[in-house]
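Standup notes
- DV: blocked on the single-chain target, sequence here:
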Amino acid sequence: MSNKTKMWGGRFSGKTAASVEAFSASIQYDSRLFRQDIAGSMAHAKMLARQGLITDEELGQILKGLSEIRAEIEAGTFVFRPELEDIHMNIEKALADKIGDAGARLHTARSRNDQVNLDTRLYMREITGEMIELITAVQRSFVGLARTYLGAVMPGYTHLQRAQPVLISHHMLAYYEMFGRDKERLVDGLKRINVLPLGAAALAGTGLPIDRQFVARELDFPKVSANSMDTVADRDFIIEFCSTGAMIQIHLSRLSEELVLWSSEEFKFVELADAFCTGSSIMPQKKNPDIPELIRGKSGRVVGNLMALLTLLKGLPMTYNRDLQEDKEPLFDTIDTVGQSLAIMAELLANMTFHTDRLEELTGGGGYMTATDLADYLVRKNVPFRQAHSIVGQTVAYCLKEKKELTDLSIAELKEFSATIEEDVFAVLSVQGSVNSRLSLGGTGLKRVEEALAVAEKDLGMVT
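- DV (later): unblocked, structure below
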């Protein structure tokens, strides 16, 4: 295409090299912004007519033409032209071809610099809402599991060593809280996404009598950007979203790691449904947890997207630079990857079962998981904690030597380590006694977990 026929070609006499057109085109990925681009153009056109910069007749032609183009794109009949570089110029050229001079007036008082910023914000506003819904679905799966297995115990770990008994429900609600913070970050990020950039033009605003507040109302933006230079240079809201996306994917990856471990023969804590596993091409007995492994693996690309965006911005002077075209591919990949991972994780969790008999067996035997309860018991008997800690350590050492559990010891054996120990100690050395003693706020005691579960069900609208 000759530069003379390009939207920006008036300054140029030579033709753009085909290699340059191919290298600089972004239509192959920013075409997904077509609805937002058209919505923004419609609001802008209404403002131009309201301000007397175009006629009402021209406005009607523009709105009709844009509606037809949107229908063509949705139907798959619209032909995107790479030589027109991006979604904005493809739509604008198609509009001009449809309606003539009225289409050429649409770009009055705006630049692609503020236009792309607007399109991205509109798109991210929608995506943020969808992402929140996907996280909510994952949270519902955790809460459903917590309700199903309420009262059942499992080993709790630190350093991947058995530490203390906890309720399965408590473990599931830990993930409920984790993903709840992700939702809070998305909601908070909306405040910085939901700012109207249109009207900043190329970088300095415009001398034409536009009404930015009108456009903000048309597009449901509660706030208008304050500085035109900052507006066209700003990609902080994209980085912030991708940072939250990376956090979500890391949380999914941590969960996936546990599911991979838990579904192994060594742990055998859970059974993943066959529909979410695959087999081996050579070992017929294998049932592989591919979905958790893939989610765990995809965390690398999502973290990489965040790093790419941070690196992209780190050396850019004010204001717009073409480097900023590179913001969309990592953004879109983060949106797609995190969204798909959340969706399939919700399905997987809804089709997972815990082996409660094995969990109870492992919690009751081996690991001396009620040792801390014995120390707490001594503290309640007025033994200083450090002394109590030492007493219990000696008791565990004795158990290891004699190949016994704490619950196997007689009262006489226990008194060898502390005369303060009485018959009531056995209540706290049992698994259920240990779990139900954890009544501090946020603890794993059944009463506290029931309270937390009720709150979660109410927050998620799961209470009938």
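- Follow-up: The mean pLDDT is 93.
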